[in-house]
Amino acid sequence: MIRDVIQDSHILLNMSPKDWQESIRLVAQPLLKEKYITQNYIEAMVNAVKQYGAYIVVGKGVALAHARPEEGVQKLGLSVMTLKDPIAFGNQENDPVKLIFCLAAIDSKAHLDIMRSIVHIINENWKINEIVAQKNLMDFKKTLEKIEENSKND
Questions:
Q1: Which residues form a coiled coil (predicted)?
Q2: Domains of the chain
C-alpha cells in the first residue's frame, strides 16, 4: 500500500512547476534530501522521458516518474505531488498531468505492491480528482487511505 511506504515529508501538495522537467525534479526532491536516491537518478528520469517520450504518464492525468535502480536508488521510496495547474508531458492520450508519483525501486520486485496500489488509483478518474483536490496533508492522507481501503474491496 502507498500509505505504508510514503512519509509525510514525501507529500507535496498544490505545487506549480513550470514544465514537466521541473515537475520531475520537484517531486524527487524529498527522496533526494533523505538519501533514497541520488541526483543522478533524477537526471536519469528526465533523460528517459527525453529519449523515450512520455511513457511515464501511466493514466489520465497521472505520471509515475522512475528510472532503473542502478541509476541511483539507495532504498525503496515513494513521493507524490499534486499540481495546482496540470502540465503537459507530451502524452496525447493522458495529458495533462495533475498527479505525479516518484518511485525509487531497489530492484524489479520490491515495488510491485506500490505499483498495484497506484494502478488501483489511476483506474478511476474520480479517485485522481479526489486526491488532487486535497489542499492539506491530513486531508490528503485520509483521502488516500479511504481510496486504498475501497480498492481492497474491489
A1: none
A2: 2-148 (3.40.930.10)
